[in-house]
Amino acid sequence: MGLKILVTVKRVEDPESRIRVKPDGSGIVTDGVGYKLNPFDEIAVEEGLRLKEAHGGEVTVVTIGGTAAVTELRAALAMGADRALLVRHDGPLDPSVVSGLLAKVFEQERPDLVLLGKQAIDDDQNQVGQYLSERLGLPQATFASKHESLEGEAEQRRLPGLALAADGERLRVVREVDGGAETLELVLPAVVTADLRLNKPRFASLPGIMKAKKKEVKELPASSLGVDLSPRVVIRRLAEPPARKGGFQVADVEELWRRLHEEAKVL
Amino acid sequence: MANVLIVAEHSAGAPRKATRHAVAAAHALAARTGGAVHVAVLGQGVGPAAERLAALGVEVHAADAPVLAPYLAEAWAPVVAEIAQRVGATWVCAAATAQGKDLLPRVAARLGAGMATDVLAFAGEGAQVTLQRPMWAGNVIAEVEITSPVKVITLRASEFPDAAEVAGGKVTAAPVAVDPGALRTRRVELRVVKSARPELTEARVVIAGGRGTKGDFKPLEALADALGGAIGASRAAVDAGWISNDSQVGQTGKVVAPDLYFAVGISGAIQHVAGMKGAKVIVAINKDPEAPIFQVADYGLVADGATALPELVARITASR
Amino acid sequence: MAPIVTGLLVTAALGAFGWNASRRLLPLLALRREPRGDRLGERLSALLRFGLGQRRLLDREERGPGLLHVALFAAFLVLALRTVTLFGMGFDRDFHLPGLAPESAAGRAYLFLKDVMVLAATAGAAGLLWRRVVTRPARLTRSWEGVLILGFILGLMLTELLVDGGGQLGVAAFWVHLLIVAVFLNFLPFGKHFHVVTALPNVFLRSLPPGSARLRKLDLEAEDARFGAATIADLSWKEGLDVLSCTECGRCQTHCPTHVTGKPLSHKAVNGALKHHLVEQAPALLAAARTKDPEGRAKALAGLPPIAQVVAPDAFWACTTCGWCETACPVLIENVPRLVDLRRHQVLVEAAVPDEAARVFKNLETQGNPWGIGSNKRAEWCADLDVPRASETRDFEYLFFVGCAGSYDDRQKKVSRAIVKLLRAAGVKFAILGEEETCTGDAARRLGNEYLFQLQAQASVEAFERHGVRKVITQCPHCFNTIRNELPDFGGRYEVVHHAELIQRLVAEGRLRPEAAREAGPVTFHDPCYLARHNGVVEAPRAALASAGVEVVELPRSGRTGFCCGAGGGRMWLEERLGTRVNRNRVDEIAATLGPAGGTVAVGCPFCLTMLKDGVAETERGESIRVLDVAEIVAERVTESKRV
Fold first, then answer.
1. ipTM above 0.90, yes or no
2. Prediction pTM value
3. Inter-chain contact A21–B140, Cβ cutoff 8 Å?
4. C-alpha–C-alpha distance, residues C529 and C486, integer Å
5. How far is CA B294 from CA B235, B309, C323, in A?
6. Residues 366-395 of C with CB under 8 A from A
7. Which among C354, C306, C343 is positioned nearest to C321, based on CA atoms?
8. Beta bridge partners of C431
């Protein structure tokens, strides 16, 4: 039988690329910017694959975006996902709309588990998983992590961090909370969002990459799902933060402390 | 009337500091929209926390029931949404903590609201409030407007002042209609992180030493103790045998992205920088003013770490 | 004399030898196909030079034992005729080879030559025996086999001398001689002395051009594609022949950076292990060789164990691909391509990638450089220099391919700027690709990620073609090698020069006139492997330095015998956890050469610069030894106003 797992993925700007805002503040300059699979989503894909390897089942990846996002779907397929779905939409969507579309996909796919990255590193909203659970009335565990170190043996053996109960109906999730780690038990179906320390994603093998090229990517227009696509959050303007110049010299320890405390707010 | 509702976080009978800052932000927001500030306190035995919040001059809605302890998003979301509707809240806010981020999108979904995370400041004109929030890891600041009737936000506490105590607050009881048997989430345990040094790749603060430390890592360890940070090192320090090789930060060592990174006596060759360039704030302390590390540092101090670090530790301790 | 006895001896000896030799050679038919029938002229020349000419044995660093071997080899060639004659005499006392009748002038001359050769061989064998038993140099494997063979040779020579003496002793010596020949012959297939049979063919069938500087392009799309070496059957038949030809002389180890610093890689040991494995798996390989249909072949090979059990990952990940071993091997065995094939299988199929390598691969994939710094920050090093872009002008002769280190590494950026200064001073029309430039993929390829390499190579060729690039300047010997030797496989053919070569040329043409000025202290030069060894560029950097009035004090290991800095083959990107540090070893040598007052070590490669700089700093010699690129030294002596 096994677990039917749906993992969401998003194409995002590589954080290493210099992100510059267009002079009129209407968006960012995309020329010369690298793109990649959102790192938190990559962790979610990895966790889905580990669960499948441990318990059997199927991993389907879904993205919402333009045709360029097929690259990220293929990256997930190359890691070992079984099927891919592109909900076709050009231009930005806010998290409430994204969760609406994903809820429709959920109704079609009926997975036991939805895995998402905790947030996309472009808009940094950290909302979709939670919105989705509430829409579907499902239990949620955000910021999934694990007690074991990423240097440890369990990680070497690629064991899942999420623990499925013997009856196959409940899932234990260790989640990062302020000041510690909390373990939740969720009754499936459920929604889990992955944090950074859940696992180290695998490196796709070449046969995996080659197979992924041949796997079908099912495509359907976002407009066909009967969801109102109009935004509830509108970006008015983008700006670059006041430049904190590299090489800024402080005079002494007192000034260093003051700037770290008041300006950078890290102490 | 555009009322503002804050969802409080509390522990041991007191509101968390982040919540007090959120209340201050709510006052600023309410002043612009002409509404009142309400606070929702959920849990079991929330009386003392509710009283202390009321002292901030707000109306506190205390939802007190066993089913609300411990915190579970699934149980809290309907209660918060119900309070929001009852008080006619246009704005529903919380501090952008792990709990706030976990809970509020669920509340927003119940209220059909749009939401903004990690709000840094309010902008716009008069009652037409827009929000400033970071995108692309803070490389871009966006000004956004929430167009739904109800607007949900989490606030970055450090960007707002602490709330002052004023008269006029009160506490009312809020009804709780959550069926414990219907919940499909259960908390199994909570492990509070021990105060021992965090793992290098997981630490919020990393203090890394290089050849310039001449092998004396004690001042670095003292700072790490003061900040709950981890100790890192350049390859030179590892090679010299001053510290074990699992502390190595760099292209061929660990890649770290803490909130705060101290590079002490590290020259800053690209192989090292590749392992820490993701840090949000980089502090370089080095005797050599020409060291390339100053090019990547946000704050540079030309000094010997052996003398500067103890001073800094003393300054930090003094501020507490 | 005794035709029946001789006949039986000959039949038995040849029959047994034929059977055993075929058991060694026929399994090679099951290995990967690789054509070696082209370029006959070059093959013959290699056969004359390296085979019959024993060129590698005369290399300066091993000339003594090399000459002893040459003596044996020459004797072997001359005495082969004598052996045939002696066997003939077993049938008929008066047998002689046509034209070599004992009383004829030619016959007498031959007999004289034979006697000289017997003496030469005796001296050679005795000398080698002395080395084996008494002086015992480190590179030699201690084995009874070597001693026994030398004993055979001495026995043959002794009996040869006695045969000529005649009498009963002569008759006895005659038979003993024939018997030793028969035993010796049948000894060959079982040990390293099989090279007597395989060495000359192995040299004739060499890789042309050498496979290390131009790794085999994998066809990644083919239906039956094999991604690197999973089992021995994925090695090429030539690699199998290499293994059978290894004489265990250990020349490959003397300057091997990994072996010298205690890593678990010895090419000699790898050859031994693979040879043993080939023999062990001969039944399966023979079965596969006999089968014509692919399915039957696959079935026969299905039981082969993973080759990673024969050559351990720690060994094949250790190689810096510096190429010393291949420069040293007298029989032209290629070690690097097969190690890369082992890495390829690990990376591409098993996805068993060292963490640091996985990071480099991701960084290359997303940003086109190993550190993962934004590709749109690639041209920031020259933001204030107004360097023309190939996308903005067609008026350039050379593309200056800056490379990743030259673009992003603060230290190497200074070299990039020095090169720009030199090009401007000489009035060279050049342009850069700017943000369109991407890593050539050298490290990815040598770390086994052929897929990523091919993507990078295609991207580079496309960018070059888009802007009509014909000539390329590189400051990194790895870029140099990849663009020059490996991009042609992707349809990109360019004239590539390293900046040191260009400086030499510009000075010769009178376009660049550095003021001759000595450095404060002595200056030495560290040869980059991918310049000196893999591409034979040895003189140019020295000439460039000389043109600036800088005289080079040579390191003991220089030029062809240069010692790797430790960063080649992608090792720059892996932590060096085993043994001692390669760069330390080299820096100690540099310090000894420069003397106690220190001086300058000139380099021509960003990896070498980093490794040596680190090594200098680690050994606290930062105050006394400067590490500078050739371009920096020359640029210091050039003023831009001298523009021609």
1. yes
2. 0.90
3. yes
4. 16
5. 18, 17, 39
6. 366-368, 372-377
7. C343
8. C399
